[in-house]
Design a protein that fits this description.
The protein is mostly beta strands. It contains 3 helices and 9 strands; from the N terminus they run βαβββαβββββα. Strands 1, 2, 3, 4, 5, 6, 7, 8 and 9 form a 9-stranded antiparallel sheet that branches. A hairpin with a 6-residue loop joins β7 and β8. α1 crosses α2. The radius of gyration is 20 Å and the shape is globular.
């Protein structure tokens, strides 16, 4: 049993992992971003709380345009002199950033393989049915904190046909599924975008799992490969 949600975001950006001064955006929402949005929706701060959940992400309508804007961004460099205190005037400069407008998504949630006592799917149902019972803070954003959504509700057929992202090892769409906040490393998956109205396929499900930490080689193993 899975939930099927509709989300509308007027303006957002999904900065690419390698983006630096010029902030390029992914054209489609990464599963890691959608997972973070759902955690924010239910008021959950622990990224590991609902590992094992499966998400499916679909685009409603045609591909949205990519625009380029000029915005002020901060550039902090390590300095013993400042020790974390930076002058806004000195460490800010204008940079270009790509943004997406009029983004409409369909999101499906499958919590059958979760180990949490109250699954993410159940918590989303509770949040939509009784939002006053949810303890959370800040606006609900898709991507960066400024990219607030118009709202989240259950999908209706009148919302339009959906083009689902389908996992494909040869796909041309590469998106992050999990990003480690401390190391900035993560798990990436390649996708293709199904045609509008195409039948939903199991390959559209994306498991949200954390990367396994590499084990340190023993002294015997290190000597073996020298």
């Amino acid at each position: 049993m899975d939930n099927w949600l509709y989300l509308d975001c007027p303006c957002t950006s999904f900065p690419r992992s390698f983006a630096r001064d010029y902030k390029e955006t992914y054209r489609y929402p990464p599963p890691s971003t959608v997972y973070g949005l759902l955690l924010s929706l239910v008021g959950e701060e622990d990224l590991n709380a609902h590992l094992g959940v499966k998400l499916a992400i679909g685009m409603i309508g045609d591909d949205v345009p990519i625009s380029r804007i000029l915005r002020k961004q901060r550039h902090h460099k390590f300095s013993k002199q400042h020790q974390g205190v930076y002058s806004t005037a000195k460490f800010s400069k204008p940079n270009f950033q790509e943004i997406l407008t009029d983004v409409r998504l369909a999101i499906r949630i499958d919590s059958e393989e979760e180990s949490a006592p109250v699954t993410l799917g159940d918590r989303v149902d509770i949040a939509l049915a009784n939002p006053e019972n949810i303890s959370r803070f800040g606006g609900l954003s898709l991507g960066e904190s400024w990219a607030m959504v118009n709202g989240v509700r259950y999908y209706r057929e009148a919302d339009g046909s959906v083009r689902w992202l389908v996992r494909d090892s040869r796909g041309l769409i590469g998106l992050p599924v999990w990003i480690d906040r401390q190391t900035t490393r993560g798990i990436f998956q390649r996708f293709t975008l199904a045609e509008s109205g195409a039948e939903f396929v199991p390959q559209s499900w994306v498991p949200i799992v954390a990367p396994v930490a590499p084990t340190k080689a023993s002294s015997k193993q290190r000597k073996k490969y020298r």
